[in-house]
Amino acid sequence: MEINRAPVLTLWATIVAQRKGYSEDEALTLGKAVAGYTAQYKGRSLGIYTAKEKTEAGEEKTKDYEVEFVDLMGRQIPTIKVGSEVRSISKDKAVDSDSVRRYLNIKFGESLDQFTATMEDLASSYRPDELGNIAFCLYEKFRPDIPQGKRGWGAKGELSLQKIQSLKK
Where are the chain's structural domains? Predict the structure, then answer.
């Protein structure tokens, strides 16, 4: 299947979060955040994005909610409580898990269930604590190959079920 890396990372990070014990709705928002932060880091390294600047006084704006951080795949994801669950935040708002579901459905189409099952199978072949340490490395081994540098930004590549399956323990 030809696909961009962002939805692949979103799906994989969602599955990893579920394996770590987060609910599906929590995991969807955390997965989207991992992909978003990874894209920001990559975009900055390529000169596509610049880092946000602080106010003149060098202070961050005050928020009226408490932010907690979740460590997922080497990223510190800011979250807030929504009821009894956590949600990642984007632009000072909780990420809507249904919007992430729609995003994955659009990007993977009819292949979503097959890729989800294959990634879940891979994730379940590792203990949750073990998976937390190697999840990003596994992703790097099965993610779509794209051109290096700015040419690869947003490009699609081949995502292989067999490559994912081959990484099972």
Answer: 2-44+65-165
